[in-house]
Amino acid sequence: MDxxxxxxxxxxxxxxxxxxxxxxxxxxxxVWRREYARQWRDIRLSAYKDFLSAYREYLAFVQDxxxxxxxxxxxxxxxELMPFFDADGRPYREKLESARMGVTLVSQEPGTRDAVFLxxxxxxxxxAARASKPPTEMADELFPNLFAAHNAFVSAARxxxxxxxxxxxx
Length: 170
What we know:
By secondary structure, the protein is mainly α. The protein has a domain of 117 residues. The protein is built from four helices and two strands, in the order H-E-E-H-H-H. Strands 1-2 form a two-stranded antiparallel ribbon. Helix 1 runs antiparallel to helix 2 and helix 1 runs parallel beside helix 3. The chain is rod-shaped.
């Protein structure tokens, strides 16, 4: 054997080891990124589910004829009222606010955050209207506006989770 063939054999062996090491690192990085993305999808899904659950509980409380709700003018927004609840309703409001903060914290897209804030404003408008009227006498446009905001949030959340949009109304 001559020195040239030994050098070529050693070089090819080192090249194979280097290529194998690089492929292993690349594959591990890819697996890590996929796992990281999956974990964040799960976190977002949980936050969105918690928000929708809190929103539905809040809305159910607001529509209950025995609920005690008051409203005062919003200090910065013209023609908007801020609803306030008694001790029975306070946990619903706090749970909804907490869930909203969770969505704000984990959502990646501005469209999702905008949709959650619009939904919050619409459900608060219903609560404020409910302060002065029973559920059967509330303005007709409040609920279609709420349902449109609900659908916009669900669409934005599904988009952020990588799911296809649901055609039509939810």
